[in-house]
Amino acid sequence: MPLLEVRDLVTEFRSSGGTVRAVDGVSLTVEPGEILGLVGESGCGKSATCRSILQLFGGSQGRIVSGQVLLNGIGDLAKMTERQMQMVRGKEASFIFQDPLTALNPTMRVGRQISEGAERHLGLGRHAAHQLAVDLLREVHVPSPERRVDAWPHEFSGGLRQRVVIAMALAMQPRLIIADEPTTALDVTVQNQILRLLAERRQKHQTAIILVTHDLGVVSEICDRVAVMYAGRIVETGSVDEVLDNPTHPYTRALLAALPSAAMRGQPLIPIEGAPPSLVAPPPGCRFAPRCAFATDMCRQGLPPELAARGGQATGHLDACILGEGR
Amino acid sequence: MFQGIVNRILMVIPVIFGVTILSFLLLQVMPGDPAEMAMGTRASPEEIEVIRVQWGLDQPLWQQYALFVRDCLTGSFGTSLFHKLPVSQLILERLPYTLGLTLYSTVIALIIALPFAIVAALSRGRAIDVAIRQVFVLMLALPPFWLSFVFIIFFALNLGLFPTGGVGNGFLENIHRLFLPALVVGLSTAALIQQSLRGTLIETMGADFIDTARAKGLTATQVFRRHILRNSLISTISVIGVRISWVIGGTVVVEKIFSVPGLGSLLIDAILTRDFPVIRGLTVFFALLVVMVNLVTDIAYAMADPRVRLR
Q1: What is the pTM of this model?
Q2: Do B130 and B220 sit in the same domain of this protein?
């Protein structure tokens, strides 16, 4: 039984340019203790999908239009009221944000920020909350946590701040952590430390993680499965080995071909020509068809193709291309 | 922090020195001779000359200035030509009323502005927000003298709730007697605070760390009080500081209308009678007050925002 099952999720954002359907029929599952990588270009709906799961839309006017977000033992999050969601956030599933420089409240000591969620949900007293914050800082390898617990966010480096954000996400031992590009804003060396921290957590506590990234190297390093998104839809999903070694969707292939690699040294990189379609008024048919080298007239009409198994085998490797063999 | 405060106080010295020069020179170019004003039109030139010599107005400029600086340094700020009293004594007698009125009006402003800023920010763009903004802009636009008269006619004369002016004895009595003038001044302060706080609240509501706070499962009230409001109030501190500096010297009209014997009335009377030492002394004193209010504002800001340190 999956820990999280998202079915046909549709999320819209109201903007000055019209209603943007940032998530358009996304389905995905996360098993307990699994790390799922969610990859794609900027604006493809990775973040919007993650934010929809916990209904954290920030200052923007986001709203789940249809679909289900089934959390094992809890129910359909998409149907929950704000008050019910408050009992889920942090406790059942927590969120790690992209930019640690802006994700912390500048006027609250880091220890308090780490423990205040647990204070509310677990009814901790001041002393217990303080001790919890120290323990969590130690767990995310912040040096001298007893002293650092009373520091202000601006006294920390970017990497340390992201550790604080992770400590916050771990505070109530959630079964699922959603990490929205947790390393994008950090130095490469710090990136690895943060990723190792997440992998460590999964190892120790069987915490499932959805890791949003646009870095396929990160995916191959720590993810079990991967879902590739394009223009609000998932176009290919499967185990990391399957998808990265044997991609079947033209978009995934193009994405992999665009990566610099040691073998291609000295040769020019191959970019994907064109730009993703507008999500205010997307084109009919496959969203990738306008940029796809293999597109036929069939690709450019009707509804976007659904995810389907390749070659009828039950490997869990699915793609959304009608040109695939055996179809 | 302590070193920062000391540095700020040292920085005040050149500012005040500049103010003494400016206030002294301004009075020299001001038309009207105090001796002539004092003696009236029927006095002979000889009689006026006697007064001029008596008041030291016949001495060279630099000497008059040196005397002025000496008076400032000794703390007397000179002697009033008409009251025959040290300017400092006149100021100290009236200071409590002006300071009281300033603080009173600021408290009223905060009581009015805070709830409306919060309601407006939470209902941003909706009819309530627009309505609140228009009422507050109107309050800012209405001239204080007009508002004073409306309040006097309505609250004092028609309803008899408040006196038409003057001050009384004791704290409670003055809270009652000074309510209308404090309200007039407080309404414009409220408008300034409401507009700035509403904007900051909306900006803070969209900040990333608000998402972080919500992701912890905090209630909407907790997120608002601990994370949104606290951060937004910090910038309100500077708005209040700037406004207080302005109100201290800017309540002249309201003080006159409500017969509050504050520094504003003292200044007006001194200007009308060309009481040079009082005008000069008050100018320097106002400058000192403004600098001190700024210092207090900076200290408050540094205490409220951990990122800010006084240097």
Answers
A1: 0.85
A2: yes
